[in-house]
């Protein structure tokens, strides 16, 4: 099972158990092969972990405690894939490649990635699973990784959308819109880059291939 995935996505490396990752910019991203209980099957998920921190903290352990993005993969009948361990991955690979507008395990275009996030937000299979504040955090923190200027541009995009949302429904898990927004813009770029580089250089990630956003 793992060998098939690594043959298809050569930039990924087996990290732990059935987790196949690479480092790309301020993220660890890749594929997790989640085994299903009581049956000999698994489900592949596309995941992105931040290297800049979570509300719980900024150590690598805290960054890797849960993904900032985790998407299931769906077949042509809009059902999640459930694969036998020895099953060919041709169909699920095609589904993943059609879902993503970039290639895992290679350098990724910054604009292409942002456009993909926009498409994911409108994907009917994912819409109910997406939390917009978390998607915006990913956009902003990636932009901050590039420059303050690009971060300001992304912030303008966020501001143009944020007022249209139901504050109580969208931000109730974040302490309200104002608190969420204030924490977002308080991030210092120098500290942001320091945390990312420190976590990138952690010995636990030394086996992973490194790529960037261009």
Describe the structure.
With 214 residues, the chain is an alpha+beta fold. The chain is 42% helix and 16% strand. The chain has one domain. It has 9 helices and 7 strands. α5 (132-146) runs antiparallel to α6. The chain is globular and about 50 Å long. It starts with a helix and ends with a strand.
Helix content: 40-55%
- What is the domain tally? 1
> In percent, how much strand structure appears in the residues?
15-25%
Summing up helix and strand content along with how strands pair, one would put the structural category as alpha+beta
Mean pLDDT: 92
Report low-confidence residues grouped into runs of 5 or more. Answer: none
Question: How many helices does DSSP assign?
Answer: 9
Task: Give the number of DSSP strands.
Answer: 7
Order of helices and strands: HEEEEHEEHHHHHHHE
In short:
With 214 residues, this protein is an alpha+beta fold. It has 9 helices and 7 strands; from the N terminus they run αββββαββαααααααβ.
């Amino acid at each position: 099972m793992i060998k098939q995935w690594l043959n298809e996505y050569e930039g990924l490396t087996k990290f732990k158990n059935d987790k196949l990752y690479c480092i790309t910019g301020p993220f660890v991203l890749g594929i997790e092969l989640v085994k299903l209980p009581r049956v000999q099957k698994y489900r592949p998920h596309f995941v992105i972990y931040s290297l800049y921190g979570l509300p719980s903290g900024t150590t690598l352990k805290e960054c890797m405690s849960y993904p900032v993005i985790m998407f299931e993969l769906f077949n042509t009948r809009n059902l999640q894939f459930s694969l036998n361990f020895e099953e060919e991955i041709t169909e699920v690979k095609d589904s993943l490649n059609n879902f993503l507008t970039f290639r895992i395990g290679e350098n990724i275009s910054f604009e292409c990635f942002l456009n993909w996030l926009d498409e994911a937000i409108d994907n009917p299979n994912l819409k109910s699973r997406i939390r917009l504040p978390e998607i915006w955090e990913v956009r902003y923190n990636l932009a901050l990784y590039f420059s303050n200027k690009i971060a300001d541009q992304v912030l303008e995009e966020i501001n143009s959308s944020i007022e249209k949302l139901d504050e109580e429904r969208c931000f109730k898990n974040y302490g309200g819109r104002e608190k969420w927004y204030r924490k977002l813009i308080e991030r210092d770029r120098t500290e942001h880059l320091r945390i990312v580089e420190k976590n990138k250089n952690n010995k636990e990630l030394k086996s992973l291939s490194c790529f960037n956003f261009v």
